[in-house]
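Hello,

Our lab assistant flagged a job as stuck in the queue for most of the afternoon. It eventually completed. Since we weren't sure the result was trustworthy after the delay, we are filing this so someone can double-check. Below is the sequence as submitted and the structure that was eventually returned. Let us know if re-running is recommended.
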Amino acid sequence: MKLALKVIPNAKKSEAAGWEEDPRTGRTLKLRIAAPPVEGRANKAVILFLASWLGIPKTSVILLRGETGRLKVVELPEECAEKLSRLAP
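-- returned structure --
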């Protein structure tokens, strides 16, 4: 499954901040990430956070788009859909 993310780097702690509607990507999961957006650190932190949070291997999280921007699209295993649907809209 594909998941659209809005990433806010340099946060105090890494956390999921809920869902929001974005006119470009539709329903988007907002993530606050503690890593800075320098030399790919934030992207690595996003992958590690999602893998840990969803209980999947980090190799199962694939960054498809958005390496240099705040809006990203990742590919996740289908079993993650149920976990994500439990989050409040």
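-- support follow-up --
The delay was a queue issue, not a problem with the job. The result is valid. The mean pLDDT is 91. The beta strands are 2-8, 15-22, 26-32, 62-65, 71-75.
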